UniProtKB/TrEMBL annotation:
Keywords: Oxidoreductase
Position of the signal peptide: none
Organism: Actinomadura luzonensis
Residue ranges crossing the lipid bilayer per the database entry: none
Coiled-coil parts of chain: none
Residue ranges constituting the NADP-dependent oxidoreductase domain according to the UniProt record: 16-297
Pfam families (UniProt xref): Aldo_ket_red (PF00248)
InterPro entries per UniProt: AKR, AKR_Detox_Biosynth, NAD(P)_OxRdtase_dom_sf, NADP_OxRdtase_dom
Listed name of the protein: Aldo/keto reductase
Length: 328
């Protein structure tokens, strides 16, 4: 397992993050999953306030070795459906949600606190200032944002820069060979701000692992009959590329996301499944394999990216040296 810096900070985070959303109880299996991940060099455990008993399970699993891990959780989701102030990204819910998470996780601080989803009703200034206060208090070390538009994240980090607040160091988004929408705005924005990108859904609920390639495959997180031609095509091509490399299909899908500079969040229920996924680290995809994977199903960046990239190469816009300029 290799490491990267979290955003523009000095915090070292492993290539693959361990997603704890499926952790429902402390069992020999969940203990083995964490042990296998740690033994491979993994150090980021990602959970959330709304993932059922996950925080309590993670808290117990990390007892005695909490400082060894980069512990990440999220807030936004409701703590009490009858209370309108028990949800959202405002200061009141942030403070109450974090205090509950700290009790569940059996710790005095979290390394990385994610804003779970954009709350359109709370000014981003309030969220960023409230997060900065918790960083100053030592209850949160770094902050990130999940599932928000690029313009919101950009505005938040610009405000943080101007006012000396803690900026978002990480961005969490859905990203896979089947779901590449974030390449239009969010990934370029993250690159411009030096943010780390955590990718969820990289295996598309098992579709890209090849689990449902057989028409008679049993339903699990997905019903095979619900898959369309696009999903089946991508799963088939991923499996064919994997067969040519002599590795499982899941490793190819994860290695592609790693190659794009993201940190895939791996959520598993069995240690053997995790051990297989860990094989993606260090898997080099040949350029021909990458081209085949990325052309298997249609994806267009769309406006404005297609238009701007075409303009970059246009002598009518930038003159005769347009195609000889080495830019960012």
């Amino acid at each position: 397992m290799r490491y990267r810096l979290l955003g523009r900070t000095g915090l070292r985070v492993s290539e693959l993050f361990l997603g704890a959303m499926t952790f429902r109880a402390v069992t020999p299996e969940t203990r083995e999953v964490l042990d296998v991940y740690a033994d491979a060099g993994g150090n980021v455990v990602d959970t959330a306030s709304m993932y059922g008993p996950s925080e309590e399970v993670v808290g117990e699993l990390l007892t005695g070795r909490r400082d060894r891990f980069v512990l990440a959780t999220k807030y936004t989701a409701t703590r009490d459906r009858a209370d309108p102030n028990a949800a959202g990204n405002h200061r009141k819910n942030l403070v109450a949600s974090l205090e509950r998470s700290l009790r569940r996780l059996r710790t005095g601080y979290v390394d990385l606190l994610w804003v779970h989803v954009w709350d359109r009703h709370t000014p981003v200034e309030e969220t960023m200032r409230a997060l900065d206060d918790l960083v100053a208090a030592g209850k949160v070390l770094y902050v990130g944002v999940s599932d928000a538009p690029a313009w919101v994240v950009s505005r938040a980090n610009t405000l943080a820069e101007w006012r000396g607040w803690t900026p978002f160091a990480g961005l969490q988004v859905p990203y896979s060979l089947l779901s590449r929408d974030v390449e239009r705005e969010l990934l370029p924005m993250a690159q411009a701000y030096g943010m780390s990108v955590a990718a969820w859904g990289t295996l598309e609920r098992g579709v890209l692992s090849g689990r449902y390639n057989d028409p008679g495959a049993p339903a699990s997180r997905v019903s095979p009959g619900s898959l369309g031609e696009r999903e089946r095509t991508m799963a088939r091509v991923t499996a064919e590329v994997a067969a040519g490399l002599g590795v499982p299909a899941a490793q190819v899908a994860l290695a592609w996301a790693l190659r794009r500079g993201t940190h895939p969040i791996v959520g598993v229920s069995r240690a053997a499944q995790l051990a297989e996924n860990l094989g993606a680290c260090g898997l080099e995809l040949p350029e021909e394999a990458v081209r085949r994977l990325e052309s298997a199903v249609e994806f267009r960046l769309g406006f404005p990216r297609d238009f701007v990239e075409a303009a970059d190469r246009s002598p009518d816009v930038y003159g005769d040296a347009a195609d000889r300029l080495d830019g960012r």
